[in-house]
Design brief:
single chain; 207 residues; alpha/beta; Rossmann fold; Arc Repressor Mutant, subunit A; 2 domains; six-stranded parallel sheet; 10 helices
């Protein structure tokens, strides 16, 4: 059986590379391409592919929200995130949204091809290094929604006073939240906290 693949990625060179790979791979057929999430949803409705290969970070609607929308409309949809973004939080969010796989664009062609076939069989697939990162953080206390908001503001370069004003809390409360955040993620400084947050995907900055 030939697997019909739809790619959704805002980078033309990535789409071209995937197309070139699938063109010579027996059992796989590229049936459509989309440069953004909204067009991707329309093409999914029209083409009903076996698997959608979706970029994580796209302008507007990102790959995780796209996955949620596809799965809400098509519960049996098989979505594989293909991204340059490592990070256990990114992968966990994608799987929670309904993705069947989380692969890195640096993956070897054979790894990607094998993953597509496994996903078609109803299995989940993660790049090996992503699996290792998830394993490293199993059992850690997750950030609360308020802590995630404060960490995201920190990553945007906001000072405590601005964070406090935006959230309607005191600067002292912001300091307390930051101390708890640093403890949870193993950071000692604001700069280190931002670095860890971005590396793990605890926050994502817009392109």
């Amino acid at each position: 059986m030939t697997l019909r693949i739809l790619t959704i990625d805002d980078h033309p060179l990535i789409r071209q590379g995937i197309a070139s790979m699938l063109e010579v791979e027996p059992g796989l057929e590229l049936v459509g391409e989309a440069a953004d999430a909204l067009d991707g949803i329309e093409q999914y409705r029209r083409l009903r592919p076996d698997i959608a290969l979706v970029d994580l970070q796209m302008p507007g609607v990102d790959g995780i929200e796209l996955t949620r929308r596809l799965r809400a409309e098509f519960p049996q949809a098989r979505v594989v995130i293909l991204t340059t973004y490592r990070g256990d939080a990114n992968a966990r969010d994608a799987l929670a949204a309904g993705a069947c796989g989380y692969l890195l664009k640096s993956s070897l062609r054979r790894e990607l091809v094998d993953a597509l076939h496994r996903v078609a069989q109803g299995k989940r697939c993660l790049s090996a290094e992503i699996s290792e990162e998830i394993a490293q953080h199993i059992g850690e206390e997750p950030l609360t929604a308020r802590e995630q908001s404060i960490l995201a503001a920190l990553a945007q370069g906001w000072e405590n006073k601005r964070i406090a004003n935006d959230l309607g809390i005191s600067s002292e409360t912001v300091k307390s939240h930051l101390a708890r955040i640093f403890e949870k993620i193993g950071a000692r400084t604001r700069t280190e906290a931002i670095h860890i947050a971005l590396r793990r995907g605890l926050v994502r900055l817009d392109d």
